[in-house]
Amino acid sequence: MNGAGSGASNLCINDTLTDDELRLILAKLESEKDKEIFGLMCKRWLRLQSTERKKLAARAGPHMLRRMADRFTCLLELELAQSVSRSFYPGVTDSDLDVIANFFHGMFLFGLMYRGISDVGMKAIGEGLSLLQSLDVSYCRKLTDKGLSAVAKSCSDLRVLHLAGCRFVMDGILEALSKNCHNLKKLGLQGCTNITNYGLISLASSCQQIKYLDINKWLSKERKEEVADVDGG
């Protein structure tokens, strides 16, 4: 009895359970906190927890992004937050987007709100993340139709796009969406004051699955002229 009990107590769970069996245990954990605790057990469990992770929010530069890509190989959703202390890290740059485009090919949701990125970074995202379905680049104030149109042309299954505060956005992106992204369902254009009725008509004619369109704080050039004529009269 004692011998049998002693033998049983010496069993190691890592010697008993396969990776697939451990993944089944991980899949039954509902909260993210429990999943994090699972990964703290040992290096093997951390590796399994990392490779099964689908969503991540982080603050990171190019070096850390490469390490994240090696660790989180099945990542589908990534949100990059601005560091509170800019001395710690200045924010996402075009070089960071190039790393994301080259290492996270399977990702379908990407969100960031950084003023430093430009059309160069957006072009890299379009070329590298062809499976992208949701993109939030609100208040990325340097972006223009050129970079965003590259995303629309390459990511034909794009369904959600948020461009709030992108003040240089014009009708070009709306035309690119109408030609390439027929599954588009949500579009945020809050504060995009350079779009016109022509662009919206082009969008509506082809993207007929749209269920949400935010044009708050928007006044088309044509409408401004109409208001000016009324005031002048």
UniProtKB/TrEMBL annotation:
Cellular component aspect of the GO annotation: cytoplasm
Domain of life per record: Eukaryota
Family matches, as Gene3D superfamilies: Ribonuclease Inhibitor
Pfam families cross-referenced by the UniProt entry: LRR_6 (PF13516)
The protein, known as: Uncharacterized protein LOC127745601
Lineage: Eukaryota, Viridiplantae, Streptophyta, Embryophyta, Tracheophyta
